[in-house]
Design brief:
The complex is a heterodimer.
Chain A lengths: L1 H18 L16 E3 L6 E5 L3 E4 L2 E3 L8 E9 L2 E7 L4 E4 L9 E9 L4 E12 L5 E7 L6 E6 L13 E3 L2 H6 L9 E7 L3 E7 L4 E4 L6 E4 L13 E7 L5 E6 L2 E6 L22 E5 L6 E5 L4 E6 L3 E4 L19 E9 L3 E8 L13 E7 L14 E6 L11 E3 L6 E5 L3 E6 L4 E7 L9 E7 L5 E5 L5 E5 L4 E8 L4 E8 L15 E6 L1 E8 L1
Parallel strand pairs in A: 2-9
Antiparallel strand pairs in A: 1-4, 3-7, 5-6, 5-8, 8-9, 10-11, 10-38, 11-12, 13-14, 14-15, 15-16, 17-18, 18-19, 20-21, 21-22, 22-23, 24-25, 25-26, 26-27, 28-29, 29-30, 30-31, 32-35, 33-34, 35-36, 36-37
Chain B lengths: L1 H18 L13 E4 L3 E5 L5 H5 L1 E11 L7 E7 L13 E3 L2 E3 L5 E9 L8 E9 L6 E2 L6 E6 L8 H8 L4 H11 L27 H21 L21
Parallel strand pairs in B: 1-9, 2-10
Antiparallel strand pairs in B: 1-3, 3-7, 4-6, 4-8, 5-7, 6-7, 8-10
Helix pairs in contact in B: 4-5
The chains are: A mainly beta, B alpha+beta.
């Protein structure tokens, strides 16, 4: 028993003594100095042209650690590229051999402290830009047999440009691809969607070519641009529906083909769309509103057809017309379509002119009307609304209307603009008046004539006279006309920009605010590059 | 008593020391199992005319695995299903090759050499195949499915027809012949929406066509069918064989 007491006592004393032991396990640490990456006031968002050098100079240090004990890695990733090491020094200086993309790449900067193994990270966004950025793309010819593509980057056409930075890059197609386009451009269209959808489509009467608008490299052409070779490449029209399905359309030999952008799998034009009742058709022109399904005019049967996505061309249902409908969209056999474009309040303006039944062409002095049709969101009930008649506007009373070559309008004004060979008229649809707001100047030559006219739907800025008579500035998108002209005697093509007053809807009268770009061949087609 | 206390202290110390033992994390490993990527395949020399002259062709039967990919090539074994009454091909019509799953892959093939013979000109023969376990794959298809490989030199319903019938309608040999003649194709190699780049495509080399292309060809065929029927109003195109025999051809 005594022994037991002794053992118990020893255990008790041991327990008591152990409580006096100072536990240093939680004190055994040293504060580690942080790795400091200082950027000053510099942004973490960078922008660089492809194949140009990117420099980033952060100040990096760690107190108590020599720079020799720091290791660095600059790794770029994103846009479906594998992570790529750019540099292993403290400051980055590397040539960016990456494809230009509309989405920024991710640049990861890692600093390793070799003494502790701790890594400090800093991320950057790097947008790789193309030198062939936003602007006006045009197709021009000097021999009426072959064409080339040129790009104007300017205050009127490109974001962030000053007037003295205006640049024209001519003959880019042949510069990159070492050949001309085989034919005279009838339609061109540049569209970009995400990372994989990027095409500049160029159509002539005999060819289709597609290039990358970011670097002008060739993608494909003619039969290779189609899932099934149409073996006929007479292009009359191109269009792009950005919001109603993201679909590019091309009209070849009167048939409308679609290219669906929202896929990674295949980027070729499909077989031509069939009509919903399997009747044959021959499309002349088409229009692609911003939010509604597109509309086209069937010259064979004298009717409007709705471009129902990539599915079919919907024949309008005449039996669903209102009793007091302005017209029947299926009974326009006496007309040919001269122009189609969007107007104010979700209206499509369709310029129809009486045609000669023998030739199918517009009859000399044939009556000209604007047949307005309604636009409806593509997901609304299209059978009842989209493409259905709204009203008929008689244009025959307006001056020189029989000489009109081109028609256009904006979707925010109740105005229509038409161009004769030498003048541009503004029709005020509310007041039913037309005024010759612009006359092609004879200062360059006396034979300069208008060869195309379109409302500008791209980037850039413009100046105009505000209601106090001062110069004001606003975006040129939907506020400016782009008129191309040609002088046979000079053999020179011109691009003239005409601001539209946001107060009156008429063409700006102060000529100082007009733009002029010259030195081209005959310009036959234009498109914005966004 | 003294011994008891000593033993008690020793036990306590043992328990305490045991708690200091570092236990490694045991990762779950699924037993490697292989199975067929498809359930059936039809091979017709009609779609591969050049191989009639050569005398043979090779069909690569797609395989998929469950379990992890490993860093070495693994072999897959396959035999003719024993006592299968649906197996009609004779032994000189085919030979089974060595199947494999390449290193770091989840898919593979097992080749079957198909020999051409006149017997195939007017008949369809079936090879019934089963996977068998081996060292690399102790587990095989849990459902123990038998793969049917049909051989012929006749035009015959392709094994992917169920995937394209929404665009072309019911099958008949005569209709399929019309489709191939109109399109100029020798087959319609469609499996899933994005063709070869689809991850669930069991054989990206064979099933290359995208849904967009199928729709394009269907539109082309629809125009040809409509054209034929307009030119032959009293004698519209009908199915000449199969369950729809005698019925007019209607595309969805």
């Amino acid at each position: 028993m005594k022994t037991q007491k002794i053992i118990l006592f020893v255990l008790l004393v041991t327990g008591l003594l152990s409580s006096c032991y100072e536990d240093k396990s939680s004190l055994n640490y040293t504060l580690i100095n942080p790795i400091n990456i200082e950027l000053g006031n510099a942004s973490t968002d960078y922008s660089v042209f492809a194949y140009d050098t990117l420099e980033i100079k952060p100040i990096v240090y760690k107190e108590g650690v020599n720079d020799d004990n720091l290791a660095f890695r600059w790794t770029i990733s994103g846009n479906y590229i594998p992570p790529t090491l750019l540099d292993t020094t403290m400051t980055l200086k590397a040539r960016i051999d990456l494809q230009p993309q509309s989405i920024a790449y991710n640049l990861l900067y890692e600093v390793l402290d070799r003494t502790t193994g701790i890594v400090q990270e800093q991320t950057f966004k790097v947008k790789v830009e193309t030198p062939f950025g936003p602007g006006l793309i045009l197709s021009e010819t000097e021999d009426d047999q072959t064409s080339d593509i040129s790009l104007i980057r300017a205050y009127n056409f490109s974001s962030g440009f000053q007037k003295d930075q205006d640049t024209t890059m001519r003959n880019l197609f042949s510069l990159v691809n070492k050949r001309k386009i085989c034919g005279v451009g009838t339609a061109i269209l540049s569209t970009t969607y995400g990372v994989y959808g990027r095409y500049l489509t160029i159509g002539t009467k005999t060819s289709v070519d597609r290039i990358d608008p970011f670097d002008y490299s060739y993608i494909d052409g003619n039969g290779e641009s189609f899932m099934i070779d149409p073996q006929n490449y007479h292009v009359s029209s191109l269009g792009f529906s950005s919001n109603a399905g993201c679909i590019e359309t091309i009209v070849i030999g009167g048939k409308l083909y679609t290219h669906y952008y929202q896929t990674q799998a295949i980027h070729k034009f499909s077989y031509y769309l069939l009509t919903s009742d399997m009747t044959d058709y021959r499309v002349g022109l088409s229009t692609q509103p911003e939010w509604a399904y597109g509309l086209c005019f069937d010259e064979m049967n004298g009717r409007f057809l709705e471009i129902n996505g990539t599915k079919y061309l919907r024949v309008m249902n005449s039996s669903k017309l209102e009793p007091n409908a302005a017209f029947d969209p299926n009974k326009l056999q006496n007309f040919t379509c001269r122009a189609m474009f969007s107007g104010k309040n979700n209206i499509s303006h369709n310029i129809l002119q009486e045609k000669d039944p023998a030739t199918g062409q517009a009859k000399p002095n044939g009556k000209i009307y604007c047949y307005d049709t309604q636009q409806a969101y593509y997901y609304a009930d299209p059978d009842l609304i989209n493409g259905m008649p709204s009203k008929i506007i008689d244009l025959n009373e307006f001056p020189e209307i029989q000489d009109a070559l081109f028609f256009t309008g904006t979707n925010n004004r109740d105005y229509i603009y038409y161009a004769t060979p030498t003048k541009v008229y503004t029709i005020d649809l509310t007041m039913r008046t037309a005024t010759a707001d612009y006359v092609v100047p004879t200062t360059e030559s006396t034979d300069e004539v208008i060869t195309s006219m379109a409302v500008w739907l791209g980037n850039g800025m413009m100046n105009y006279t505000n209601n106090r008579g001062d110069m004001a500035t606003t975006v040129s998108n939907n506020n400016m006309l782009v008129v191309t002209t040609y002088s046979p005697s000079l053999k020179e093509g011109f691009v003239r920009t005409l601001p539209i007053s946001i107060y009156t809807g008429r063409i700006e009268q102060n000529k100082d605010y007009y733009g002029l770009f010259r030195g081209f061949g005959k310009i036959t087609a234009t498109t914005p590059q966004k | 008593m003294k011994n008891y206390i000593f033993a008690g202290c020793l036990s306590l110390a043992s328990v305490l020391f045991c708690s200091c033992d570092k236990e490694g994390v045991t990762m779950y490993e699924e037993s490697p199992t292989v199975y067929f990527g498809e359930v059936a395949r039809t091979y017709t020399f009609v779609e591969n005319m050049e191989h009639i002259g050569i005398g043979f062709d090779t069909v690569k039967i797609p395989l998929q695995i469950s379990g992890s990919a490993v860093g070495r090539l693994r072999e897959v074994a396959m035999i003719v299903a024993p006592d299968d009454t649906l197996h009609t091909a004779t032994s000189d019509m085919f030979s089974i090759g060595k199947g494999s799953i390449e290193a770091h892959q989840y898919k593979g093939y097992i080749p079957v050499r198909i020999n051409y013979s006149n017997a195939l000109d007017d008949s369809v023969y079936q090879i019934r195949l089963q996977l068998i376990a081996n060292n690399d794959f102790p587990g095989i298809d849990l459902l123990n499915r038998t793969f049917t490989l049909s051989l012929t030199n006749k035009i015959t319903q392709p094994s992917n027809w169920s995937r394209i019938k929404n665009y072309f309608g019911p099958y008949s040999d005569s209709w399929y012949r019309f489709i191939l003649k109109t399109t100029g194709l020798i087959s319609i190699p469609y499996w899933s929406t994005n063709g070869s780049i689809d991850k669930n495509n069991p054989d990206p080399e064979k099933w290359t066509m995208t849904l967009y292309e199928v729709k394009a060809y269907a539109a082309m065929v629809k125009v040809a069918l409509d054209d034929y029927n307009r030119k032959h109003p009293q004698n519209q195109l009908t199915h000449e064989d199969g369950p729809e025999k005698g019925k007019p051809i209607i595309m969805p």
